[in-house]
Amino acid sequence: MRENENQAVQSEHAAFPWKQVFGLLLSLALTFLALWVVLGLSLSVHATLTIIIGLAILQALIQLFMFMHFTEGTEPVHQIIGIAFGLFVTAMVVVLTLWILYYAI
Amino acid sequence: MMDSFIHFLLHRFFVTGDPMIYGADASIALASIGIVVVVTYLKKWKWLWKEWLTSVDHKKIGIMYIIAALLMLFRGGVDALMMRTQLALPNMHFLTSEHYNQVFTTHGTIMIIFVAMPFIFGLMNIAVPLQIGARDVAFPFLNALSFWLFFFGAMLFNISFVIGGSPDAGWSSYAPYAELSMNPGVGQNYYLVGVQIAGIGSLASGINFLVTILKMRAPGMTLFKMPMFTWSILITSVIIIFAFPAFTVALALMSIDRLFGAHFFTIASGGSPMLWANLFWFWGHPEVYIVLLPVFGVFSEVIATFSHKTLFGYAVMVWSMVAISIIGFVTWLHHFFTMGNTAEVNAFFSISTAIIAIPTGVKIFNWLFTMNKGRIEFSTAMLWALAFIPNFTIGGVTGVMLALAPADYQYHNSYFLVAHFHSVLIAGPVFGIFCGLYYWWPKMFGYMLNERQGKLAFWVFMISFNICFMPMYIVGLLGMTRRMYTYPAGMGWTPFNFIETIGAFGMGAGFLIIAYNIVWSTLKGKRDTTGDPWNGRTLEWSIPSPAPEYNFATIPTVSARDAFAVAKTQEDQENKKERQLFQPIHMPNNSGIPIIMSLFMFIAGFGLVWEWYWMVIPGAIGIVVCMIVRSFQYNDHHIISIEEIERTERAAGRLS
Ligand code: HEM
Ligand SMILES: [Cu+2]
C-alpha cells in the first residue's frame, strides 16, 4: 500500500472537465429522446422497446466511459469483481423477474 | 378566495379532528420553540452551525446520525405502543381502523428506514475510519450530504401526520392499493418522496464507504487483516450499491404513476401491480442484510474483545458474509410466495432462502467458538451480544419455516410472520446497535455509560422483548392475521394479546432506562482517560477518547490482524512517545452546502408531495445552484500545523 493512498481523495483542479460536461449533455439528450420516442411517436410496442433498450445500452456505455473511469483504473481486480457482480445482479433481476411475472396468474 | 384558502388549510393541509393529533401539534410546537429559546439563550447558534451542522468530520456526522436515530426510535416506539394499546383487548376503540393503518405504516417505515439505517450509518461513520487507521472517509463532503439527505427525508416523512395525513399502505406500499385511484390524497406521496430522498443519501454512503475501505487503509493492512466490523461494512456497502437502485427506480415509477398519471403498477393500460411487489422486495430482502451484516460485525468485535481472544474462524466469517451478499440477491420472492406464482418459481426461491440460512448458521458457531475457553467478561455490551445469539436463532429458525413455500400458505401474513421478523430485526439490528453504542460510546464522547444502569436496561428490554413476541408466534398459529386493527372476543386470542401489550410497555421502559443512562452518564459518567477502556484489539482503541479531529497523529503501520492487541504485546508504549515524528495534516473544510442543498431537496420534495410546481421549481433550481457552487470551490481543505498536533497530543497525555 502506498503512502499517499491514506489521504482523502483530492480533487484535481486541472483542465476544464469537457468530457464530463459532454457526457452529461449526452445523457440528458438520450433520456429525453427515449421519453419522446414513447410519448411523441406512436410506434408499435416492439419498435418502441427496441429503440429505448438501444438507447439504454448507449447510456450505460456513456456512464462507464465518461464518468466511471472505466479505462483508467489502477486496480483491475476491483474493477473486474465490480463489473462481474453488477452483471450478475442485473441478469438476476431481469431474468428472474421475467420468469416470475410471465407465469404469474 | 380567502374562504376557500381557509377551507383548504383546515380540511386538507392540517390534519384536524383527532385529539391525539392536536396533542402532537402542541408538543411539536412546544419542542421547537423550546429548542430555539434554549439555543438563543445560551448563544449557541454560531457554535451549532460551525461545529455541527456544517461539519464534514465523520465522527460528528456519526454522532448526528445516532441522535437522529434515537429520536426516530422514540417516534417509532410510540407508534408501536399505540398499536399494542389498541390490541390489548378485543373491540377496543383507542384507534380507528384508518388511524391504525397509518400507525403501522409509519411504524414500519420509520423503524427500517429512519432507525435501523441511520444507526448503522452512525456506527460505521464512527468506527470504520478509526479501525482502518484513516483520517476521514474518502469523500467527507459527500458524507455530510448523505446525512442531511437522510435527515430531511426523515423530516418530510414525519410531518405527514400533522400536515396532510400519513400514508396507510404499509411499509411495503403494495400496488394497486398505494396507487392514486384507491389511495387519493398526499399521504402516499410523503412515503414515496421522503423515502426517495433518504435513499439517495444511503446510496451515496454505500459508495463512500466502499471507496474508503478499499483505498484508505493504513499501510500494511491488507483486506484479510481488516477488523471484522470493517469487513461487514465493506460487504454491506456493496449490497447497498446494488440493491438501492432498484428501490430508487420503483419509487420513481410509482411517483410518476401518482403524479403524472402513468400506469406502471396499475392494471389499466397494461401495468402490473405485481411488478411493484417484485421490485420492492428485490431491494427489500437485501435491505434486511444491509441492517443485519453490520451488527454481525459489531458482535464479532465485542465477542472477541470481551472473551479476550482473537475471533474464531476469521476467513470463514468473511466468506460466509460474501456468500450471504450474493445469495441475498436471489431470495426476494419468499415475501410473496402466495401471490400466484408457479410451483417452479416458488421452489427455486424456497431453496435459495433455505441455502442462505447456512452461512448465517456458520457465523453463529464461529461466535460460540470464539467464546469457547475464553475469559468472558460480562459487560453491558457483551450481554447484548450474548442475548443476540439465542434470540436471533429463534428468528432464523422460524425464518426457515417461512421459507418453505407450502407451509408459508399457512403462516403468510399471520402474527407468526410478525413474530419472526421482529425476532430477527430486534435481536439482530436493535440488540446490535445497543451493543455497539455501549462499546463505542467512550470513543465517541470520552466517557463511559454507567454499567449498572446499562445492565438493568438490558435485562428489562430483553425479557420484555420475549414477553412481547413469543405469544405472537402462538396467536399467529391460532389464526390472527397481520395488520388487523381489532378482533372479536372468544377467539382465544385475548390473553396472548394482553401479555404482548405488557411486554411492549416493558420494552418502552427499557428504552427509557437507556435514555436515563445516557443523560446520567453525560453528567456524572466515568471519564475514559486511557482511550482503551475495554482492553480493545483494533486500532480505534490506540488513540485518545474522544478521537482528535485528525484521528491519528501519525498513521500506524499494521502487520497483523487485531493490530492494536499485537502492538500492545510487542512494544513499550513509553518508547513510542519518544519516537513520534509529526507532519502537517491536510483536513477537509467544513461546508454549509450539504445542509442547504438538502433543505432545497426538502422544499422541492414538499412541493412534489402536494403537486405544487411553483414550489418544486425553486427547490430544484436551488439544488442545481448548490452543485454549481460546490464545483467551483477550489479551496476545500486546511492544514493542521505540527505545533497544533503536539498541543493536542500533549493535552491527551500522549506526549511527554
Ligand atoms: C435481519 C434479518 C431479517 C429481517 C430484517 C427480516 C425481515 C422480514 C420482514 C419485514 C418480513 C415481512 C414481509 C411482509 O411485509 O409481509 C419478512 C418475511 C420473511 N422472512 Fe425475513 N427477515 C430477516 C431474516 C430472515 C431469514 C434469516 C430468513 C430465512 C432464512 C427469512 C425469511 C423470511 C421469509 C420466508 C419471509 C416471508 C414470510 C411471508 O411473507 O409469509 N427472513 N422478513
Ligand atoms: Cu427476505
UniProtKB/TrEMBL annotation, chain A:
Catalytic activity: 2 a quinol + O2 = 2 a quinone + 2 H2O
TM helices/strands, residue ranges: 21-39, 45-68, 80-102
Protein's membrane topology: Multi-pass membrane protein
Top-level taxon in the UniProt lineage: Bacteria
Natural source organism: Sporolactobacillus spathodeae
ATP-binding as UniProt keyword: no
Protein name: Quinol oxidase subunit 4
Listed EC numbers: 1.10.3.-
Family the entry assigns: Belongs to the cytochrome c oxidase bacterial subunit 4 family.
Keywords: Cell membrane, Membrane, Oxidoreductase, Transmembrane, Transmembrane helix
Compartment list: Cell membrane
Pfam family, one: COX4_pro
Function: Catalyzes quinol oxidation with the concomitant reduction of oxygen to water.
Subcellular location, principal: membrane
Automatic annotation (TrEMBL), chain B:
Cofactor binding mode and count: Heme A3. Binds a copper B center.
Membrane topology: Multi-pass membrane protein
Pathway membership, UniProt: Energy metabolism; oxidative phosphorylation
EC numbers on record: 1.10.3.-
Cofactor annotation: ferriheme a; Cu cation
Domain of life of the native organism: Bacteria
Annotated transmembrane regions: 20-42, 63-83, 103-128, 140-163, 190-211, 231-256, 276-299, 311-335, 347-369, 381-405, 417-441, 456-478, 498-519, 587-606, 612-632
UniProt-listed CDD domains: Ubiquinol_Oxidase_I
Keywords associated with the record: Cell membrane, Copper, Electron transport, Heme, Hydrogen ion transport, Ion transport, Iron, Membrane, Metal-binding, Oxidoreductase, Respiratory chain, Transmembrane, Transmembrane helix, Transport
The protein's enzyme class: oxidoreductase
Subcellular location: Cell membrane
Reaction(s) the record says it catalyses: 2 a quinol + O2 = 2 a quinone + 2 H2O
Domain (Cytochrome oxidase subunit I profile): residue spans on this chain: 41-559
SUPFAM superfamilies recorded: Cytochrome c oxidase subunit I-like (SSF81442)
Family under the similarity heading: Belongs to the heme-copper respiratory oxidase family.
PANTHER family named among the record's database cross-references: CYTOCHROME BO(3) UBIQUINOL OXIDASE SUBUNIT 1, CYTOCHROME C OXIDASE SUBUNIT 1
Protein purpose: Catalyzes quinol oxidation with the concomitant reduction of oxygen to water.
Stated name of the protein: Quinol oxidase subunit 1
Source organism per UniProt: Sporolactobacillus spathodeae
